UniProtKB/TrEMBL annotation:
Family matches, as CDD domains: PH_PKB
Source organism phylogeny: Eukaryota, Metazoa, Chordata, Cephalochordata, Leptocardii
Compositionally biased tracts (Low complexity): 113-129
Domain of life: Eukaryota
Extent of Basic and acidic residues compositional bias: 94-106
Organism: Branchiostoma lanceolatum (Common lancelet)
Pfam families: PH
Chain ranges of the PH domain: 1-92
SUPFAM superfamilies, sorted: PH domain-like (SSF50729)
Protein name: AKT protein
Stored PROSITE patterns: PH_DOMAIN
Listed SMART domains: PH (SM00233)
Region called Disordered, residue ranges: 94-129
InterPro entries from the UniProt entry: PH-like_dom_sf, PH_domain, PH_PKB, PI-Interact_SigTrans_Reg
Amino acid sequence: GEYIKTWRPRYFLLKTDGSFIGYKEKPHPSNMNDPLNNFTVAKCQIMKTEKPRPNTFIIRCLQWTTIIERTFHVDTPEEREDWIRAIQSVADKLQEQEDMKSKESQEGMLTNSYTSSDSRPSSSGGSTASHKVTLEDFDFLKVLGKGTFGKVILVREK
């Protein structure tokens, strides 16, 4: 169980998008509705253990802003290795996709960072078509709010 540690059989499907969907009873392809659990294995940690039962593994993942640990038990060490390998493979592919998107985004930002008719002078005195915008380019006027992920600040471009 999620809160009380009792062992009950569950049936899980791992999808290539990282969804790890659990059912109380073996799902039929015609009826995949009403899952008991649905979480993602993206950026998860997988740990093998022999406690509280042999052939146990734990998946630690982030759900919104909370770290969740889910404990699974299978019948054989081979079955555990198969699950761990499959979950890690999906998680690695998702991480590769995220890294590529991030790299493409950064490359796009570098090529589009600052192009305008009012080109700014470079440090050598000439003009440039590209300028990286930094915090030094702004005057801070007022802190509008603070939150978990930082501050929101009202600024004016210098």
